[in-house]
Each structure stands twice: as C-alpha cells, then as structure tokens.
TrEMBL record:
Pfam families: NAD_binding_10. It comes from Natronoarchaeum philippinense. Residues 7-160 form the NAD(P)-binding domain. One of its GO terms (molecular function) is protein-containing complex binding. This is NADH dehydrogenase.
Length: 308
C-alpha cells in the first residue's frame, strides 16, 4: 500500500513509518519542517501545513491510506501562531477533504484517550471534534484513542524531567494525579499497522491502554530510578498548583496555564481496553518498567483478531 502519514516525523510517526516500511509499504511523511534525520531514507518527505489546504493537497495524490498524526502536544500551551483548533479540527477538515478529492480509500485518525467534543481542555475538545470530522466523511475510517504512549523520543519523558527534580520533588497531591495507562510505542505501532492493513477494523473507535495504571508521581519515580536516582515526593495541595497555573496562564513566556491545571485532574485510563481486538491481552504488553530496563518485547508475529 501507499501510505501518507501526516506528522510522520513526530514521536509516534517515526516509529509508525518504520513499522510500515518493515511491512513492505511505501511511506510518505508530511509535516511543516520535515526532519530526515529521524526517519529511514526510504520515507518520502513532503513539506506542508495541515492548516493550509493548498500546501498539503499534492501529497495525497495516489495514496491508498492516510494516517493523520499531525497535532500539537497537550503538555504545553501552543505557541501564539497556532492552536489546537486550527491543527486538530482545521487540519482534519483539510486532510479529509484532500483524501476525498484524491481517491484515498481509508483514513486513520490518531485521537487520544479522553477525546470529547465537550472536553475540558482545548486538546481533548479538538481531538473529539477532529474525530467527528473523520467519522462523518465519505472515507473508510478508523479512530485510535491511546493513553500516554512511551518509548524512545517521548516528549512526555522530557516534560516529566523538566518539571520534577531527582532526590526531592514537589508535586500537586503528591503526584497522585493525573493517572495514565501507558502503552509502549512499539506495541502501539503494531496495532496501528494492523488497523491500516486490515479492512475488518474499519468504522470503529479503538481505545488503547497498556498493562498498568500509573500516576504522574510513579512515572517520575520510575524515570529517576532508571537513572540510578531516588525521589522523595513532597506533596502540595492541588488547589495551590491550580491557582499557580491559572496565574501564569496570561504570561506568554510560560507555556503552562488553565488547560494544564485542568489536565492535572483528568484520568487517562480506559474502562474498555480494545487491545484484545488486535490479538493482545493487556498482560502481553510492555510495561514502562520493562522498557526502562531495556526489556521491551520482540514477540512473534500475531494473528490479528478483527472485531465484529
Ligand atoms: N505521544 C503520546 O503520548 C500520545 C498519546 C495519545 C495520542 N497521541 C496522538 O498521536 C499523534 C502523534 O503524537 P506525537 O506524540 O507523535 O506528537 P509529536 O511528536 O508532537 O508530533 C507531531 C507531528 O505533527 C506535525 N505537525 C504539527 N503541526 C502540524 C501542522 N500544522 N501541519 C503539518 N504537520 C504538523 C509535527 O511536525 P512539524 O512541527 O514539523 O509540523 C510532528 O511531525 C497526535 O495526534 C497525538 O495527539 C499521542
């Protein structure tokens, strides 16, 4: 198949492009500032901005499947020149339109656990609306909603290290929130690629989580312990952290604010993990601690088990 991956040189995209190449597909990555250093040379790099239809249209010609990964991370407020609305909703509208105009048969939308058109933060609200754009299109579609994805190049690891310190760190509610169900990027891209290849998965929303539920504090502790450092967490009341984040919201040089305060209270855990539809049991998946010990699994080929 000929597959276009928007955001193909981002964290998830670079792993997915490699998985698709390994499976024998032709792969094109589209992003605003293509980075050849993070992708195999066989990936065709195209420059374009999903918020600008004319800049992306040509990349869709001749493609069988589009995977839409272009997005802004929820960890920080977006820079002034862009927004979750323009990238996630406007970008999905443009990508779906280009796919329909250029005879693409299938559209795979990367959303996120917690996506909700009435969500509390711009990230989750626009992910929910982006999903709707895809689901009401004329294309065959799949929506994936993963929890926090971890692996080599994860921005979340950088975020945790930037906002905590080894040995002693101060965290709202002692780091008990938010809670995640981290899933390894290597497991994720196998599931994504199965969904891309097999039409039996079409027309469904799949929530994906890993084998364990971890809090922000537990993730921080595990990251530092993997570096051989301990962490003593000193709790501060959630209300103080909330007030501080609301206070810095208007300050452009601090990329944190109201949405990050709201995200602190969210639970990013699924109550119906759909990994089983792809032949996985939750317990088959790589845990964060196994990954940090360098023990991620390389399992034999699975037989996909399409959902009905
Ligand atoms: N990482 C996670 O833990 C996680 C969890 C759940 C869901 N997801 C979802 O998975 C998808 C990929 O996440 P990620 O972690 O790989 O994100 P990422 O590392 O931030 O990569 C985002 C990609 O999108 C591109 N992009 C951003 N704005 C664009 C625009 N206007 N036009 C074209 N390309 C644009 C970026 O390249 P340029 O900046 O050069 O354009 C980059 O290639 C997102 O939809 C995200 O919400 C991620």
């Amino acid at each position: 198949m000929d597959v276009l991956v928007t955001g193909g040189d981002g964290f998830v995209g670079r792993h997915l492009c490699s998985e698709l190449l390994d499976r024998g597909h032709d792969v094109t990555s589209l992003s605003r500032t293509p980075d050849p250093s993070v992708l195999p040379s066989e990936v065709d790099l195209q420059q374009g901005d999903v918020t600008d239809y004319d800049s992306i249209e040509d990349a869709f010609e001749g493609k069988d499947v589009v995977v839409n990964l272009a997005a802004l991370p929820p960890l920080h407020q977006p820079p002034k020149e862009t927004s979750h609305d323009s990238v996630c909703i406007g970008g999905s509208i443009n990508a779906v339109e280009a796919a329909e105009q250029h005879g693409v048969s299938k559209f795979v939308e990367m959303s996120s656990l917690g996506a909700d058109p009435n969500g509390d933060t711009a990230y989750w609200r626009t992910q929910g609306l982006g999903e709707k754009v895809v689901r009401y299109s004329e294309l065959d579609w799949i929506v994936f909603r993963p929890s926090f994805i971890f692996g080599d190049g994860s921005e979340t690891f950088t975020f945790v290290r930037r906002h905590t310190t080894p040995y002693v760190t101060v965290l709202p509610d002692g780091g008990d929130h938010p809670r995640f169900q981290p899933i390894w990027v290597g497991d994720c891209v196998e599931i994504f690629a199965d969904g891309i290849e097999d039409d039996a998965y079409d027309g469904e929303v799949y929530e994906l989580g890993g084998p364990e539920v971890l809090s922000f504090g537990e993730v921080a502790r595990m990251l530092y312990e993997a570096d051989g450092k301990s962490v003593e967490i000193v709790p501060v009341p959630m209300v103080l952290a909330t007030v501080a984040l609301y206070a810095v919201d208007p300050i452009p040089s601090i990329p944190l604010g109201v949405d990050q305060a709201r995200a602190l209270k969210m639970s990013n855990v699924t109550d119906h993990n759909d990994v089983g539809a792809f032949g996985y049991d939750e317990s088959d998946l790589t845990t964060l601690s196994a990954y940090l010990r360098g023990e991620q699994r390389h399992r034999p080929q699975r037989r996909p088990v399409p959902s009905d």
